[in-house]
Amino acid sequence: MRIIETALILRNELARLRTGSKRVAFIPTMGNLHDGHLALIKEARAQADVVVVSVFVNPLQFAREEDLQRYPRTLQADCEKLSKAQVDLVYAPAVSDVYPHGLTHQTQVVVPPLVHQCDEPHQRTRLRGIATVMCKLFNLVRPDIVFFGTNDHPRYLTIRRLIRDLNYDIALATIPTAREKTGLALSSCNTLLDADEKKTAPRLYLTLQALADMIRERPSAISESLDNAREDLNTAGFRDISLEICDADDLQDVRVNSEKAVILASVWLGSIRLIDCLHVNLPPAD
C-alpha cells in the first residue's frame, strides 16, 4: 500500500497501476475509519483490480468552524486498517493540495434541486461541499466505480445526480448501512459521544423504525406520525431535530404514486450531529 499526499503523484501512480485495462474502485472518506468503511473496501476489493481510498476532512462541507476542528483525525490508525484491508493507494492530502488557491474563491458545485430543498443552512453547505470535493476527487482518481454507504441518502442522491449531469463514466455502488448492535448507524463522529450520549443515541434508530411501521399502517397520517416522532426524540434528549419523510427518488413530498419513501433524520446529541435514514416500501395506492 502506498500513501500519497499530492495530486501529481496520485495521477502518476494511477497511470502506472491502470496498465492492462485494470478496473479502479474508489472509496472517499474523511477518516476515523470504522467497520462500515471496511465493508465498503471489502466489496470494492471484490469488484475491482485497484482500490483507492481518500482520507480528507473537507472544510467546504462544514458550516461551523468548531465542527471542522472537532472532527477526529486518526490517519496513522486509518492507514493501519487500510493496509490490512489490502488497499492499493491512500490519498491523504493537505487542504492546500485539494484547494491550492484557497477556499474563499474556490469554484463550488451546486446540485439542484436537492440543495434548494434543504431547509437547514448547514445541510445546504454540506451538500455543496460534498459535490465540490467529489468533482475534484473524481477528476483526480478517474475511478470506474465509487462506493458509498446508504445512511446519508441526500449525499447519495447528490452524487448520483452529479455523475449523471456531468457525464462522469463512473458506476455508483452502495451497501446497506453498517450499524452497531444497538442499531446506531456507524459514523466517524460516534467516538465523540460520551457514555450517557452513547446510551441515548440508539433511540434515534428505534424512533425511525417505529415511524416506518406507522407509515406502512397509515400512509395518510405522515404529518401526525412525524409530530409524534419529533416529540419522542425531544423527550429522549435530542435537540435541533430535523425529521422528514420524502419520496426516496427525489426528496420531494411523498405522492400518491410514490413506491418508496425515505425517513431522513438529522439531530444533535450534546455537541455531535447524528444523521440516519430508513427506507420504507409504501403500500399501493387504493
From TrEMBL:
Residues given in the record as beta-alanine binding sites: 61
EC number in record: 6.3.2.1
UniProt: (R)-pantoate binding residues: 61
Keywords, sorted A to Z: ATP-binding, Cytoplasm, Ligase, Nucleotide-binding, Pantothenate biosynthesis
InterPro entries: Cyt_trans-like, Pantoate_ligase, Pantoate_ligase_C, Rossmann-like_a/b/a_fold
Compartments in which it is found: Cytoplasm
Binding positions for ATP per the UniProt entry: 30-37, 149-152, 178
Active site positions: 37
GO cellular component: cytosol
Main function: Catalyzes the condensation of pantoate with beta-alanine in an ATP-dependent reaction via a pantoyl-adenylate intermediate.
PANTHER family per the UniProt record, alphabetical: CYTIDYLATE KINASE/PANTOATE-BETA-ALANINE LIGASE, PANTOATE--BETA-ALANINE LIGASE
Remarks, miscellaneous: The reaction proceeds by a bi uni uni bi ping pong mechanism.
Subunit details: Homodimer.
Family of the protein in this entry: Belongs to the pantothenate synthetase family.
The protein's name in its UniProt record: Pantothenate synthetase
